[in-house]
Amino acid sequence: MFEAILLTVITAATPLVVAALGELVTERSGVLNLGVEGMMIMGAVSAFAAAQLTGSPYIGVLAGIAGGAIFSLLFAFLTLTLVANQVATGLALTILGLGLSGQLGEAFVGKPGIKLQPIVFPVLSDIPFLGRVLFSQDLIFYLSIVLVIGINWFLFRSRTGLKMRAIGDNHASAHALGINVIRTRYLAVMFGGACAGLAGAQLSLVYTPQWVENMAAGRGWIALALVVFASWRPWRLLAGGYLFGAVTIGQLHAQAFGIGVPSQLLSALPYAATIVVLVIISHNRRTTLINTPASLGKPFVPDR
């Protein structure tokens, strides 16, 4: 019983972790992209459509990544090249993504999905309890772990990661040192979009292998909150993602057990937990200010 619950928690947490990791890198470069929800849903519809048309869920995964990355370029062009307001543009990107995905996915509503099957490691998958939990998972779960390790190394151990963090903390000083601020931010935004698209692919190919309009269901906003919850640290983000995943699955099991609480209230628990966590974090202003990239959300124009 516990093993089955843990498996569902992992499935629910993976898209949150992947999308939040992409946003973490984007925000570390000093860009605030509130369009995670829109990029996720575009990744979901792209992945499902490509899998349906080709018969391969792996091509679907690649299409989801591409869909999110390409959609993020619109945000990058508007905010980095045209210097539009990042908050307003991110919100517009989410609204556009929800509407456009509904239009593109209309032809796929009701069609059976092509599920991304687990990768089973011989012998290791036979280990009691840990075998199924760790060694019989889908590709995107393993990619999420690789991303946590890789992003942590990139940000805190590599020269390029140090430059990107410098841009996020003070883009004017980084520009004065000869670092290409705009190019770095373009790449960071695209990486964030690719991760959001990968998270969307997990939703339509693993979590619920079908296309349903607005199937992201607010997960993009939870991913944004996770970045703040984790204080812009990848390992903390991983723990936070599984915490929120457990809350999501917990409310489903509570409904199954017939607990005498309205189902609407239980369904709102993950989002209520998000609000509670953000309120708690906001009380520790010193820690938040220390970890927040100082140039986050601030426009940069090289010739000013």
Structure description:
This protein is an all-alpha fold. Helix content is about 70%, strand content about 0%. It has helices at about 1-30, 35-55, 55-80, 85-105, 130-135, 140-155, 160-170, 170-175, 180-205, 220-230, 235-255, 265, 270-285, 285-290, and strands spanning about 120, 135. Strands 1-2 form a two-stranded antiparallel sheet. Helix 1 runs parallel beside helix 6 (about 140-155), helix 1 (about 1-30) crosses helix 10 and helix 1 packs antiparallel against helix 11 (about 235-255). The chain is globular, with a radius of gyration of 19 Å. The model has no long low-confidence stretch (mean pLDDT about 90).
Helix/strand class? mainly alpha
Query: How many domains make up the coordinates?
Result: 1
The residue ranges in which pLDDT falls below 50 over 5 or more consecutive positions are none
CATH superfamily: ABC transporter involved in vitamin B12 uptake, BtuC
CATH class: Mainly Alpha
Taking all Cα atoms into account, the compactness measure Rg is 19 Å
Order of helices and strands: HHHHEHEHHHHHHHHH
User: How much helicity do the residues have?
Assistant: over 70%
Q: What form results from the Cα inertia axes? A: globular
Q: Averaged pLDDT, please?
A: 88
CATH architectural grouping: Orthogonal Bundle
Strand content is under 5%
Tell me the CATH topology.
Answer: ABC transporter involved in vitamin B12 uptake, BtuC
Count of individual helical segments: 14
| Biggest beta-sheet profile | 2 strands, antiparallel
